[in-house]
Design a protein that fits this description.
Largest sheet: 14 strands, antiparallel, barrel
CATH superfamily: Outer membrane protein transport protein (OMPP1/FadL/TodX)
Order of helices and strands: HEHHEEEHEEHEEEEEEEEEEEEE
CATH topology: Porin
Number of strands: 19
Radius of gyration: 21 Å
Helix content: 10-25%
Amino acid sequence: MRNSGVVRAAFAAVFVVVSVEAAHAQIYESFGIRAQGMGGAFVAVADDATATWWNPAGLAGGAYGNSVLEYGTLQDPRVATDATGAAVPAWRSDTRGISVAYPAFGLSYYRLKLSQIQPVTAIGTDPLSRQDPGQAPVRQTAFVLQQFGATFGQSIGSHLVLATTLKLLYGGSSAAPTVAGSASLDQAAALPTGSETHADLDIGAMARFGAISVGATVKNLREPSFGSGDSLVDVRRQARVGLAASSHKRAGTMSAFAVDVDADLTRTSMATGDVRHVAAGLEGWMYNGSLGLRAGVSANTIGAARPAAGGGLSLALRKGTYIDSQATFGSDQSRKGWGLDFRVTF
């Protein structure tokens, strides 16, 4: 029996090595607690410091000054095998961020740690794995990315803002073959990662006409890659557009009510499948701005819709100081999770 286990593990190692596909790093909804609470619809709202992630042109319509300190986690499923012991895709991302912004300038730091388990089926079929699903080959990957950004914006006339975030990316990746019965996201997270540095940029546009705003943004224009071989991780270009309507607001304040609809124009490959999201969400403030409520839904336009629903709550500790929270549920494995932030606005 021991020799049989060694043989199966050897098959797994061979299959993982020869059926390499590049992993991918992130989705739009990786950061932004308010955005995630609105179901991932924020490109045409983006009026706080997380505009440095969502749409750099949004800073021009936000508060005079604001900062956000956030933490979030996304994970699904909880285990990497199904009831029969067969391998299933799994991923987990842990995120931290801090951003400080004024209407025409922002500084940001985002850290993402991504752990994934991917079944390997691209080449051949291991008959031993068919007999024992727990011995099916899988690949565990880990990716850590730190992003340092500086955002600059410029008004074009009275309605249009163009902006860019210049980014320095520092990170690394690693991969290791194993079998389904032995794989875990904790093991993947513990893999040692190397370090590389790349420069990149995002661009964004925001057009406002009274209560209506239209936003568009493209992230990762240079599409940097980290690692090589079976540990290769591509930071692919992502494009998204949004349309929002909001109540009238005074300069330097957030709208009392806003609704946004977003759509991805590009696809992102995750361990749990390709995603291209459409999302709709709303946000409302009451009790003189001391309580904020959010809700939203999203769906995948590639394959099964896999809908997800999100909700969020903001509480004012005092004027201009908030705790924001969000939770996302549903069948979209790339979206399930929760997050908190501490936000100061003036």
